[in-house]
Amino acid sequence: SAASWPTYVYWPNADKANSLKSIPANASLLGPHRVAGNFAPEMQFSLEQDWMQGISMRQAKAPSGAVTLSWNLVPGATAHFAQMLSGKEEGGAATVVFWSSSDVQTFMSGLSDFVAPAEAGRLVGRKQLMPPAQTSCAIPKEAVAAGGEAGIVMLTSHGPEQNIVYPPRPKDPKVDWVQEWSVKARFASRTGGL
């Protein structure tokens, strides 16, 4: 956080607490970028990936009590991850339900954060993330019933990654590669609802 790291920066807002400037809907990430400040070297690089397409998620409650989530195909996605958090209190006892779209037992921490494409592929193979072509999943009736009627549903489509290092690796392997800075641009598309 900004409180513990003097080089922590919020973008596009210099002061997140006092400024809520939005990124324009027609903005693009493609092309040249320049990052400059008083705590790091100036970085100039070019991005080859634009914003990922947004996710339009729909929910439908089945007669069984399960909830089906469906969404549009997201070009460039490497994997998807859905999760639900809900809770209820009955008779002085609280129940909290965590549900994830993983086919295997998985605690969801980190799977909705940025996941590198190679790791996304590995986790799809392990059935912890859904494959990029998948466009629906179902929250089982048991999870819906255990958590009550109110829950938060989140869906993440993981995307590509671009890594840039300056200066580029020398062609001669005998020359030391002294890196001055690097950029890791990761892309994801997210949505959520109740």
Give the count of helical stretches: 2
Beta-strand segment tally: 9
Level of helix content? under 10%
**Mean pLDDT figure:** 87
Uncertain parts: none
The N- to C-terminal Cα distance equals 28 Å
- By secondary-structure content and strand pairing, the structural class works out as mainly beta
Large-scale geometry: elongated
What does this structure look like?
Strands 6-5-8-9 form a four-stranded antiparallel β-sheet, with helices on both faces. β3 (57-61) and β4 form a beta hairpin. The chain has 194 residues and is mainly β. The mean pLDDT is 87. 8% of the residues lie in helices and 38% in strands.
Features of the shown structure:
mainly beta; four-stranded antiparallel beta sheet; three-stranded antiparallel beta sheet; 2 helices
